[in-house]
């Protein structure tokens, strides 16, 4: 949901900032790499339960994430490798944060590592369903929680975690539940879309075509 808002009411502000930094020679891939390190340091701070610093690095990571996309659009230099790098970095960062959370947050109902693994699993499944669905049809279903939404929930968890670390655990549980609900809702919505378009899910031969290098251009993960 946050991604949709970012593309409408606030985007004009991001474009102005992106234009400034693009003139300084910052490329989209540069921002992606910087964002990777910001995400890594955020995970380190989560591991040590330094939630305030985790929030600082999280903000910097989010800023880098916005800039890499906006500069690419502004300068019209989006490349297949850039998108692939962006997806890869995103998943590494989510893995770092999930692992750090699982190793440090208080246990609630299940071992903390289980919640962390389930949350990362849900995130990966959302990406897979969104990417494959985007290759099959141009119509985009409503996504209950995207990466921005998960980031906001973590942000709230970090704030409350400074009062009591167990609240951070609750935020990870919330992300886990909402992520898997999102996967289910995406599958249901895509089934209706494809039925309406008279399409069926691809067989093995078509899957091979979808995984060709040219199809990388369709990868957009949120």
Question: What is this structure, in a nutshell?
Answer:
The protein has 222 residues and is mainly alpha-helical. It is 75% helix and 0% strand. It contains nine helices and no strands.
Describe this structure in words.
With 222 residues, this protein is mainly α. It has a single domain, classed as Four Helix Bundle (Hemerythrin (Met), subunit A). It is 75% helix and 0% strand. It is built from nine helices and no strands. The protein has helices at residues 2-6, 11-23, 28-47, 51-74, 80-104, 112-136, 147-161, 166-197, 204-210. The protein is flat, with a radius of gyration of 18 Å.
Largest sheet: none
In angstroms, what separates the terminal alpha carbons?
Answer: 10 Å
* Uncertain stretches: 204-221
CATH topology name, in short, is Four Helix Bundle (Hemerythrin (Met), subunit A)
Q: At the first level of CATH, what is the class?
A: Mainly Alpha
**Considering the protein shown, what is the CATH homologous superfamily?**
CDP-alcohol phosphotransferase transmembrane (TM) domain
Order of helices and strands: HHHHHHHHH
Mean pLDDT: 80
Number of strands: 0
Structural classification = mainly alpha
Corresponding CATH architecture: Up-down Bundle
Estimated helix fraction: over 70%
Total count of domains: 1
- Report the radius of gyration as a whole number of Å: 18 Å
Label the overall shape: flat
Quickly count the helices: 9
